[in-house]
């Protein structure tokens, strides 16, 4: 019989219970015991769902209150020395590292491979003292075992952990593997003593182009884990690993998981190389997207493998299901036709069960499920909702000239300086201001029909007026309207564009308590009417200072949505670019002289293999320029990127030709800016001077120090001063305090720079 299992399960809960429990705890509304109870209930519910779906192994150890990489750092004793004073109970220590303290900034945060999930980067140093403290992890495993089903604990592998961490002193992280794997071996022995037969050990870096030193470290590192008794399932995902099969098949592991959704061609090679004893786990259901599985196509792939491997064939999603929403059960407003095309995490469990029964009992045993799968797929292929002749016609009319500004940046810069009259080191924010409980309550009342459209508009205008007044009193130079009317930077635009569907409860975790609800791109995208123009015009009427029009870029709209899989992604990106282009043109006509087109997901879309970078970067840059290059020289175009390593794609970022780019740099102590300096980035840049993902308010002196370092790298005449990202998750008192320090730091440095030599 084929065996079914998961690589991981959503941990936020059906109603985002984890989010609300965390925020209540952080705000002092509940204690640690209450938070732990919520965690226990969520884990128990996840295991019951897996049991009810007939999975052969329950996954344990995949739950984290904030982030699994953070939990692994704590479990192996990798607590940065700068947090020595915060080492109290485990939960408090975890949140100190995740959110910062009055005396220390939080750990650096960046994207998990090419997903929109953010992980915390452990800080390591030469001679790192790893030691095992696995009580919390082992307790989760024991709780799962109490349900009576076999349990498969999940671990991030030692080499992936080291790769994804950062060195604080320039030491070689790879040199730390012997000390770290000793802790892993100790943990595996404890799991064996607890009766665990299989352990899933994730090494997602095997999908990357590893240099020889990292590749060659797998053999001795895993040799150190051999003989610890639990069988090891080496899990890879997100891309092809055939280029490392020689390394993988030489390891003392008893099974291999491969992603057959992202890289189906690797199945044959993996099957041929595994031998007669090892398990092949096939990631046959898409763990990254929400479209139903083509069950007949999946069976055609699996049947020959089943005949060959028998009970050594395991079925699973391609990766952890934490990247998709939990259940379609609560989606009552989706168009029934579109809903029929979708599968969230729980529905994917059902797909695994159907595939297993079809393999073990024959297709007649699941005749109805296969018929429904066929009908749903046919419905989607032939639906008139999917294609639109108007969009196809516009795409045919594209010309290269539509992707170029009228003049080069130096000419534009002079005209923009004359038009905007900004000081040296101009100050601004990234776009959003605090989404207060009152704003959320008004939005909820409006959506329920309890607040009329006119009254809701007036409430939002009151919030906009308040945001403008606050910024003027703080002395900011370029203002924003604050985005009170927007629940999310992608969701807001999606609900105004054709080709998108919005869910009610399709939440996924982005980091910590931050959840996002990606919209679904099911068909051709176009903009029927202006979206932001009236709001921007109103905000600009309240002040003499320039107000930025705030838009989300086409690549980010693509990356942060569940994207249709029936056409190339670049084609969908061009459709999105045309919709944003129309909005840019209308903003300029309305008198908005500064327009920000955010692209925080630009690097996130980068393929994991370098050989695949050029085509992606080509169409991603094209999409941005198609959206932006329809304005006069005097109109200043900004973009924002956050939480990504940029140094290896700086030529592409420069090719976007935005007049100003703002980036995250505070958690990395301006390290990310060094690449822009070495590359001699030609346009203007705003390196973030404080971290908005932490409630910590940095001092004016701390921001001055970061700005001074920035001036060493970039000509101050091309520098802007801003936070790392938007401020919607913060509260007004800390926002005002931090922005006040930021403005004063900019003024102090400005005066110093303008003094005669």
Automatic annotation (TrEMBL):
All residue ranges annotated as the Cobalamin-independent methionine synthase MetE N-terminal domain in the record: 4-308
Record's cofactor remark: Binds 1 zinc ion per subunit.
Enzyme class: transferase
Keywords, alphabetical: Amino-acid biosynthesis, Metal-binding, Methionine biosynthesis, Methyltransferase, Repeat, Transferase, Zinc
GO molecular function annotations of the record: 5-methyltetrahydropteroyltriglutamate-homocysteine S-methyltransferase activity
InterPro entries: Cbl-indep_Met_Synth_N, Cobalamin-indep_Met_synthase, Met_Synth_C/arc, UROD/MetE-like_sf
Superkingdom of origin organism: Bacteria
Pfam assignment, any one: Meth_synt_1
Residue positions binding Zn(2+): 640, 642, 664, 725
Reaction catalysis annotation: 5-methyltetrahydropteroyltri-L-glutamate + L-homocysteine = tetrahydropteroyltri-L-glutamate + L-methionine
Record-annotated active site: 693
Keyword Nucleus: no
SUPFAM superfamilies: UROD/MetE-like
Necessary cofactors: Zn(2+)
EC number: 2.1.1.14
GO BP terms, alphabetized: methylation
Binding site for L-methionine: 430-432, 483, 598
Protein family per UniProt: Belongs to the vitamin-B12 independent methionine synthase family.
Cross-referenced PANTHER family: 5-METHYLTETRAHYDROPTEROYLTRIGLUTAMATE--HOMOCYSTEINE METHYLTRANSFERASE (PTHR30519)
Protein's UniProt name: 5-methyltetrahydropteroyltriglutamate--homocysteine methyltransferase
UniProt organism field: Caldimonas mangrovi
Gene field: metE
